Amino acid sequence: MIELFLYHHQRDVLPELQTLFPDLEAETWREAGVCYRASFTQGQIMRQIQFLHDHGIRYIDHHHRCEKRVRAFFQGVQVEGLPIREISVRPATRPNAHAVILKTAATQVWLFLPPEWLRLDAQLDAPCARWLCVYPRDGRVCAAQTSSDERQRPPEHATETMEQMQQWLSEQGYVLALRVPALCGMAELYRPWDEVTGGKS
After folding, report:
1. Which domain covers residue 70, as residue numbers?
2. CA-based Rg of the chain, rounded to a whole angstrom?
3. pTM of the predicted model, to two decimals?
């Protein structure tokens, strides 16, 4: 799915644009022009992109942007202790939403990314609000709440060794979700067990 913005002085190219993008649909009207929604067509993508560039039409390719951001986000990540071998990103049925498939040597994980994921706004805190990030700091192992706003949270718990931390996490009902590279070294993300089981013990 792509978004196009056509300034009022570009309206002369609208008939050609509708021919090149059969599913072109007006979405919002603004003072300077109109926002449209459309899709690239297999076998015509290079021609469509060239037309947009030739006429100076601004556009956002949500799928390409999502795939680029997903691959950057999961670079170096491990799922249940195993490195990710393959990442697939495909459009979901909901407009501007995407399905992500992470494959390791042992399993594959499906994720649904709503349109809000690309905006990186405060709504992203909600799904992981109860997760903990475990990382080394000053010779100790710390656990703090996760954050999507890049602000550091104060540690909720600290231990001398990773074994002690894992014991504490187990007692608190947390399980390993992801292992990610961080500035301080390798960090681990833990989620509550009731999120994994849907509240069932």
Report:
1. 64-119
2. 22
3. 0.44
